[in-house]
Amino acid sequence: MKTNKLGINTICTHVGEVEDLQFKSAVSPLFMATSYAYDGMDAKRYPRSFNSPNQVALAKKVAALEHCEASLIFGSGMAAISHALLGLLKIGDHVIFPQTLYGGAYNFIVKEFPKYGIEFSFAVGFSLEHFRNEIQANTKLMYLESPSNPLMKITDLGMIAKLAKEHDLITMIDNTFATPILQNPADFGIDIIMHSATKYLGGHSDISAGTISGSQAHIQKIWETSINLGGHLSDYTVWLLERSMKTLALRVRRQSKTAKKIAKWLAEHAHVTKVYYPGLKSHPDYAIAKKQMRGYGGMLSFELAEGLDAKEFMRALKLVKYSLSLAGVESTILSPTETSHYLLTPEERENQGITDGLLRFSIGIEEKEDIIADLEQAFKTIT
């Protein structure tokens, strides 16, 4: 099936299906086997080799959505990050990371990279010069998050891709917050695209998964390491993820539209001092986001006014869930200090601009009027 002429919802629905040759069912059959015939076959199928029927099919869907040649499906977003980086790097290599970074990724870097003899540094800002200043003779890879977690920083992907190619560097991005519905980094020259599929690709708060997409050559190199580390996803969860991704575009577009309206409402609220959302014209990276995204996403963060307790506010919410993770069909809210970035020291969080009063807000598919009403009643409860 040629995907370059298909609409996004058609790709979500039909690309990467497993054909049911026996019963002609409307959905993909599920192959739970761990033992397959291999005599005379080109591929010796085994789940840990990422080549069971359901894994191969779903990888085609992810690759098509990200405008890439190939993909791999992992057991979590962190498995995708760690397998990709360890597959592409070797002892003595140097990696540049952005100033703000998902806490799990940051902890993996600072705790595990020294064991492998891999060097790293963090750009102090997001301009071309900030990244250029970190390039060393042994630099191998530049890693990006855009939008970033949790402050929604936007990086100019074309700018970084051009800089990387000038120095023969690999580029890798965490595209989780944008999703392939709103942003395709490969179109700007980014080499490796990662997703925590636990989030929007799964979308229902019941799947843990991760994906990596890129050229066939890069994916082959990552695969050669990944089959030794064993981070594949179970076929049942692969099947659930393929089912969930059929509604990806519908969910993400709805969430993005609602998030923009709620961000504007929060920005005008007396008990909110700052809103981080790239769809607001007040956001410092608004122009870049408008250039490279097809919508601004369903994620935002905001800071409560001085004197208001973040925990009390979250506990006062009735519709919005005070809950871990993000990107489900239900709206959720949390404190990065206590969750996604709790592994960082207070000093490290301060350096990234993450305060105790910062709340990360994942917008669901509920009516915006109901979400706003719940926020308002929570404000009234604590003031």
What percent strand? Answer: 5-15%
Distance between the termini: 57 Å
Q: Give, in spatial order, the strands making up the sheet with the most strands.
A: 1-7-6-5-4-2-3
Specify the number of helices.
14
CATH architecture type of the largest domain:
3-Layer(aba) Sandwich
Record field, number of beta strands: 12
Instruction: Show unreliable segments.
Output: none
CATH homologous superfamily descriptor of the largest domain: Type I PLP-dependent aspartate aminotransferase-like (Major domain)
User: Share of helix among residues?
Assistant: 25-40%
Q: What general outline do the C-alpha atoms trace?
A: globular
Task: Classify the oligomer.
Answer: single chain
CATH class of the largest domain: Alpha Beta
Order of helical and strand elements: HHEHEHEHEHEHEEHHHEHEHEEHEH
- Round the Cα radius of gyration to an integer and report it: 21 Å
The CATH topology of the largest domain is given as: Aspartate Aminotransferase, domain 2
Q: On the 0-100 scale, what is the average pLDDT?
A: 94
Kindly name the structural category.
alpha/beta
Please give the domain count. 2
